[in-house]
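Let us practice reading a record.
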Amino acid sequence: MFASAIETDIAPSGTLLGLLQRGRGDGWLHALAAPRAEAVAALERCVLHDPRPDWRLEHRSLYYARLYAELGAPLDGIAAHLAHPKDAQRTDEERTGLALSVLGHLTSYGNREALALLRGYAVQGSNWRWALDELAVRDEDAGLRALGPEILARFPLTEEGEAALTAAVRDSFERRPWQLWADDPDRPRQRARLARALEEGAFDRWRRQLRPSGPQPGWSVRAVLDWAQEGYERFPRQWRVSAAARCLGAVAGPEDRAELVATAADGPPAARATALRHLAERGAPEAFGLIAAAAACADRDVARAAVAAFSRMSGPAALGQARRWAERQDELGSCAAAMLASRGQAGDAPTVLAALLRAVRTRGPNARELRPLVEGAGRFGISAAAPVLRYVYRETASSELRGHTAGALARTDPGFPTGFAVECLWDCEEDTRELAARYATTVDHRVVERLRRLACDPAEQAGVQTVVRGRLAGRAGG
């Protein structure tokens, strides 16, 4: 019925590895029931080969750390991964970030081996800043102070080394280690060096504020459009459309309308995108025709900018146009359906359902446009969407999308409290666990036990624990 997911690195959803890669609660439960060696091997593969579609938006580290602790899994694989010669060649955060985050959570659970691995990697590893941030919120003062000389040894006592140290201090996510080292009474030279770095970093930030590189007061519409295009033509390319459109809002007047319309119709890519966005945000009567023409443009940057411009429109006219475009088989049609899903009326429910079915059939359970359509199905309470929502829940590789799908199922599927809501208590996403804590039936003995464990888990998020404790209190009160 539906298109299969095209996922070269994600195992099928019915396998233990596939469940763990997706961060599903069922993966946790299956791992505990599987032979320990098989479960540990699947878990280690997930941690060493990050399966997340977008590691900046999706969470797996606490999910995997809890499973490491539950299985009593050894950390030898993570240690070998961090010490591999590839670490010096691939310095990107994606190779080791998930493993370091897992070690951070294990440290919170009192695992001394995980703490030692983090300390060692902070001294020797290429992604040392990530390890240091994990330690900054978990290690004791004495442990962090001992790392100071070894971390500072990364920066030679040269002009270049001092500049690199200043940048590291200035751009650090967690300030605690640097402040501890700067205040260490037993190392006066270290204190003096870090005092200079801290002062220079603060001066750098002040200097940047005094020298903005963007548009200045008094710029004309043409100057703003040229600035947007100049960034587009740089290497690497800078997409300045959002900032330039905001500037146009401050400097453009009625006398500039003809120039903006002409640029939106046939200007160079970034300037055209900027003019399109400006006109769309102000509901210009020409906007719909200009957006339709740009969406059909062969230049993908212009076409995507046209869709983005339409997504920012509001009001009855935009909704009316969305109803006319929602049947289109292109990105503009998907955007129109998403607008109806999020801002439409009850009468738009059939259109939203049709768009949801079409997206899953043609692009699979990981399609980019699914999130607003899934949310729309829940918003309208479309019970006929429950089968396709269950399919998306099971198959998608995105834990973020799965969480939104669970929310829609809670509003459309009467079987959700006794079905998916139960496994969601073990899900990798905080919001999904919170949803499950609200809906999962306590008739299932596993639910009550899981709620109790979440209530006293020091690593659990406060929002989840608030709902869990309220649910347990309500149950105790009868």
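A brief commentary: The longest helix spans residues 188-210.
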